[in-house]
Design brief:
Blueprint lengths: L14 H8 L15 E6 L2 H10 L8 E7 L2 E2 L5 E2 L6 E9 L11 H17 L4 E3 L3 E4 L11 E10 L2 E9 L25 H21 L3 H8 L6 E5 L5 E9 L5 E4 L5 E4 L3 E4 L3
Parallel strand pairs: 1-2
Antiparallel strand pairs: 2-5, 3-4, 5-9, 6-7, 7-8, 8-9, 10-11, 10-14, 11-12, 12-13
Helix pairs in contact: 1-4, 3-4
Amino acid sequence: MSRSAERWSREPLDAVSVIRWLAHYPSGTDGAPWPVPRLLATTGSTNAELAVVLAAGPVPEGTCVVAEHQSAGKGRQGRVWESPAGAGLWLSVVIDIAAVAPARRGLLPLAAGLALADALIEVTGLEVMLKWPNDIVIDGPARDGLVGPRKLGGLLVEAAERAVVGCGINVSGAVNELPTPQATSLFLEGAPPVDRGRLLAAELSHLRHRVTQWRAGLGLIGDYRERCLSLGRSVQVLLPGGEVLVGVATAISPDGQLVVTDSKGNSRSVAAGDVIHATI
């Protein structure tokens, strides 16, 4: 960690402090309060940790695991990454999906992305945006002048009978601790030092609110469109089968797909893929 980042504490999250921060947020009117998060020093992956818990039997919605360090964090397309201890906030949360129609379950990652952005804006004041489908970003070029945006973090939703929403945010990472020039942290973006316990409580509160909105089907897509940086941008979409789709991201469909229009005016909806912004 650089000398200028020394004010950013990497002390482990304290359970008493986390509970105190959770008490600042209402538990909502949509059911019992979510369980207090389980804090771990290290794990391979918080998503994998919760998968083991779910395999052992039912748990309440909102069951959450937080790790100071992940040695095999899960990303899109099966990517694996490692996080410096105490430099970020890495967590996974159980969400019930049974009451939501299958056609609308694909909106859960968008709801979770909005929740992360909501929490970061509240706690840091940064202008946090979303790159479809699941990147938490800051608009602007990468550190070496390459095309941005700069990525603060992301999420991965894995669903079977219930969904596990995995979230990761780079909090105090220095340049030499981040994997690519496009990666950034709250520290590098000039945010004031962040209490990770407060950020955890804010994320869980906003996630609960956005999950309630997702279930009700009220306004989620409109909110996402307003915060989606990909809309109106020239993009390349790397599709799961290896195909590359080039065009302008012109819309987000009601079921959360990205609509890309090519130079001939042909539009195509994409349910999954890695988006590269071709222009700043």
